[in-house]
Design a protein that fits this description.
The complex is a heterodimer of chains A (about 270) and B (about 250). With about 270 residues, chain A is mainly alpha-helical. The longest helix of chain A has 24 residues. Chain A has one domain. Chain A is about 50% helix and about 5% strand. In chain A, strands 1-2 form a two-stranded antiparallel ribbon. In chain A, strands 3-4 form a two-stranded antiparallel sheet. Chain A has a two-stranded antiparallel ribbon with strand order 5-6. Chain B has ten helices and seven strands. In chain B, helix 6 crosses helix 9. Chain B is elongated and about 75 Å long. Classes of the chains: A mainly alpha (about 270), B alpha+beta (about 250). At the A-B interface, helix 4, helix 5 and helix 7 of A face helix 2, helix 5, helix 8 and helix 9 of B.
């Protein structure tokens, strides 16, 4: 491809003949992602108010060990925070959330939808379609570091495990001290896992792995059906990416507020 | 009602926007206005067109900064109270006025390995395949080669990577071949090394401008990227393949 080179005139940053509000989607994406990053980082470093009765915040699930200094709850898989694990790394506390959030964080960071969205909103690469860019050099995802985005399917495998765990949490959220029941928090957690599953099961990598990699699917009816289902969800991947992102934050917020006594969790029955 | 159209005039060395005023009526598209301007005041205005039905892919241009087909852009969908800018595609060298040299695309296409079917299924030299297996690639066959996707792609228009990057149109073409149930050729190494699919950072601009509404990014480029991952970036998949071979 070294022959037949085309020379074009490059535009400056933000230069465009577009007259519409091309900057609005990127700005909204920037604000939306920033708000989530700020809130989730803050919540992850708290190490308290992450559970309330049968509810466990999705940002702390799976709760491998109970956070240091917190009373032991039935949510913890391996009991209290072990003595061999430090509670601080320099000035930042290490919490149960810090131990696990790299997995869903990595899944979203390497997600094909998010990539396209944050390249535009945070790197201006490009700021919007047919709008000039700030940099001359461009490496794309062909070279380090963004070539590492190809690890996405490995994060998918972990994300699928998280869906199972969060589904278990939603079922466990019906087990109150006085027996089976459904509270507002149960609904919040159930909606959370449904939205997360809709996002995860619509993943482009999953679409490829369940059948997209085959050129002939007519002789593989199970794979063909799975591919069709994943393709349907994939068509709404952006919608579920945003809904699930918002709802994860809201679920944590709701449980945190209940735990702090700011919200009353009403029982439906 | 009269409207003003700022049309790029000039040759390969440079050009400028020149204003033309012309009468517009209900149902007109941008190409109608350009033809009217040619007839009234600029008979030497160069512009490619052919079918006036959005099927030949000749009248690609940038209207108010957005890559569009002139014949499919109705004037009632754009603001004609201000001058409407009409420019040639930026990702290709201008020849004259609105005409650009898109020959690079045809050169790239020649380099993509051609369709190589398996041995015929029947003695009469014909093949059998299921409709459900070709449904996926039929979407790609809708491409009219207007090159609007190539034009809007920032890898070409802003970074001038024509030497290393094939562009969305050619990924659609490659996907149509790669996913074809009869095809036996492998183009994955070329996609990664020669056609630079790694440069695509999934902005989806190509999908947004496609007049045939081909879901270029989700249905062609990302599945091809995943096939590249299979062969080059997934050690587990390689291991599974190794065991299957044994």
């Amino acid at each position: 491809m070294a022959s037949n080179l085309v020379q074009i005139t490059r535009r400056g940053f933000g230069e465009t003949m577009r007259r519409d509000g091309w900057w609005i989607p990127s700005l909204l994406t920037f604000l939306g992602f920033s708000a989530f990053i700020v809130y989730s980082t803050w919540a992850a470093f708290q190490g308290e108010h992450y559970s309330f009765g049968p509810y466990l915040s999705p940002m702390y699930s799976p709760l491998i060990w109970e956070a240091a200094g917190q009373p032991l709850s039935h949510h913890s898989w391996l009991g209290a925070w072990p003595a061999w694990l430090p509670t601080y790394l320099l000035v930042q506390p290490i919490t149960p959330a810090i131990l696990i959030l790299w997995a869903p964080g990595g899944f979203r960071f390497t997600c094909y939808y998010y990539r396209g969205a944050y390249y535009k909103a945070f790197w201006a690469d490009p700021p919007a379609c047919a709008v000039g860019e700030p940099r001359n050099e461009y490496r794309g995802e062909k070279k380090f570091p963004l070539i590492l985005q190809n690890v996405h399917r490995y994060f998918l495998y972990i994300a699928l495990l998280f869906i199972v765990i969060l589904a278990y949490d939603a079922i466990a959220a019906t087990q109150f001290a006085d027996g089976f029941g459904i509270g507002v928090g149960t609904l919040v957690m159930t909606i959370n896992v449904i939205l997360l599953a809709s996002y995860t099961f619509g993943c482009h990598s999953l679409r490829h792995l369940v059948g997209g990699r085959c050129d002939t699917m007519s002789n593989k009816p199970v794979q063909h059906k799975l591919w069709q289902w994943v393709s349907k969800l994939n068509g709404k991947h952006m919608l579920f990416a945003w809904l699930s992102l918002f709802w994860v934050g809201f679920t944590d917020f709701y449980i945190r507020m209940c735990s702090m006594g700011s919200f009353t969790d009403y029982r439906i029955f | 009602m009269k409207a003003t159209f700022s049309i790029r005039r000039g040759g390969s060395e440079g050009g400028e926007l020149v204003d033309y005023r012309t009468e517009v009526t209900e149902g007109m598209v941008v190409l109608d206005a350009v033809h009217q301007i040619q007839a009234e005041s600029a008979p030497d205005l160069a512009c490619r067109w052919n079918c006036k039905a959005g099927k030949c892919g000749s009248c690609s241009a940038e209207i108010n900064g957005k890559p569009k087909l002139m014949c499919m852009t109705r004037l009632d969908t754009i603001d004609i109270t201000q001058p409407v800018t009409i420019e040639p595609m930026r990702a290709f060298p201008p020849i004259k006025d609105l005409a650009t040299d898109v020959s690079w695309n045809f050169e790239v296409k020649k380099r993509i390995k051609k369709f190589k079917p398996r041995k015929p299924d029947a003695e009469d030299g014909t093949w059998r395949m299921q409709q459900s297996d070709v449904d996926r690639v039929q979407e790609f066959r809708k491409c009219i080669e207007c090159f609007l996707c190539q034009d809007v792609c920032h890898v070409l228009r802003d970074h001038n990577k024509h030497a290393e990057f094939a562009g969305p149109r050619h990924y659609v073409y490659t996907a149509a071949l790669e996913m074809h149930p009869l095809d036996t050729e492998n183009r994955i190494d070329e996609l990664k090394n020669d056609f630079g699919i790694g440069y695509c950072n999934i902005t989806k601009c190509c999908t947004k401008v496609c007049p045939e509404h081909i879901t270029i990014t989700d249905n062609a480029i990302i599945p091809l990227k995943e096939r590249v991952v299979d062969e080059h970036f997934d050690p587990l998949a390689k291991l599974v393949k190794l065991f299957r071979k044994k």
